[in-house]
Design goal:
alpha+beta; 10 strands; about 350 residues; globular
């Protein structure tokens, strides 16, 4: 009797196991099919452009004309920071009494800072987390110290290692800013971005692996250590829109990450809000201002790093004040440091005069 019961239980488990395995195998092709389908869909464009309350326009952006869903997902490299890690990060709030303009554009506020208006290209790598951080810090060096410099995404991407995440397979925005404090970041001139092909052409494949950390300037007349620019601190801004605006108004652009859905790939103009499509991942960008549309929609103004062939000449607007796609949830920044700046200026002066060899 006991043997018969055991045999029955075993048969039941075997059946359940086979059934479960069959369900998993059956689900796999659907998932693969989804990843291999094209990211740009006429049906999504029609749904958005045919919706008078959408507030934005969609198009078949040539940037992603040959991209599959899987290839697009690879570019979304902003990993969610574990909540326990965020507990030790200072949260900055600003005085509510601070009067802020109804609209603000960092490009106009600091016209002498050319980096603010640059639209870059992360190419074949999920390095958005590094781009948003390095671009914001570059802008802040100009705003606070008058240095119009482009800092190196490559340094952060290649040399931060596992502390920042997985390089081209994604990273954590807060650790990027901590890297600036602890290790500094060299200039783009010293260590240019590894993917010089970029993604201006349709269908950027295959995906590139994370570059190796070399710690040497490509120009042998420059020293890696002398090219380092540091951050003073790394902090979060509260999710209150007023605090975010005050931070940008006082100190310059900030890095934000947000949740990306399928429809975002189709953005062309207007104030984006999620209308249709599945969630695909997290993306980090640079927030440079805010305003209100002619239709009365409050928005954030952001610079993306998908070249100028995407969106509104590389920029986009997203609804402000409602935490659209979690855009107000994780705002990261830090102040630039004067550390090493005297040496940097001395080396720059020598180079400008054409004297000496900085590697000597």
């Amino acid at each position: 009797m006991q043997m018969a019961t055991s045999l029955g239980v075993f048969t039941l488990l075997l059946f359940l196991g086979t059934s479960f395995h069959s369900q998993v195998i059956a689900a796999a092709p659907d998932s693969k099919l989804k990843l291999n389908s094209m990211i740009l869909q006429e049906s999504i464009i029609k749904k958005i452009n045919g919706n008078p309350s959408a507030g934005w326009k969609a198009a078949m952006n040539p940037k992603f004309s040959n991209y599959t869903v899987g290839q697009f997902k690879y570019l979304l490299g902003a990993k969610p920071t574990p909540k326990k890690e965020l507990r030790g990060v200072p949260v900055i709030g600003r005085l509510k009494s601070l009067k802020l303009p109804k609209e603000f554009d960092a490009r106009k506020a600091w016209p002498q800072c050319s980096t603010i208006g640059r639209i870059l290209d992360q190419g074949h790598c999920g390095s958005c987390w590094a781009f948003g951080a390095v671009e914001s810090l570059s802008d802040r060096f100009c705003i606070h110290f008058g240095l119009n410099i482009s800092l190196s995404v490559n340094d952060l991407l290649a040399c931060c290692g596992f502390m920042c995440g997985d390089g081209c397979d994604g990273g954590y925005t807060i650790y990027a800013w901590r890297y600036f404090v602890n290790h500094g970041v060299v200039t783009e001139e010293c260590d240019p971005y590894f993917d010089d092909i970029g993604c201006s052409h349709p269908g950027c494949t295959p995906e590139f692996p994370t570059p190796k950390c070399v710690r040497k300037c490509i120009d042998k007349n420059q020293l890696w250590s002398q090219s380092k620019h540091y951050g003073v601190n790394a902090y979060r801004t509260s999710s209150d829109p007023h605090d975010i605006m005050a931070e940008v108004y006082k100190n310059g652009p900030v890095e934000v990450d947000f949740t990306v859905y399928e429809d975002f790939a189709h953005y062309r103009s207007g104030v984006y809000k999620h209308i249709t499509g599945d969630v695909l991942g997290g993306h980090a960008v640079k927030l440079i201002g805010w305003g209100t549309s002619d239709d009365g929609e409050d928005y954030w103004l952001l610079a993306n790093q998908w070249n100028r062939g995407w969106g509104d000449d590389g920029y986009f607007k997203i609804k402000r004040g409602t935490n659209e796609c979690d855009i107000e949830e994780n705002v990261i920044a830090g102040l630039p440091s004067a550390r090493n700046l005297d040496l940097v200026r001395q080396v720059a002066a020598v180079d400008a005069l054409g004297f000496g060899d900085a590697s000597a």
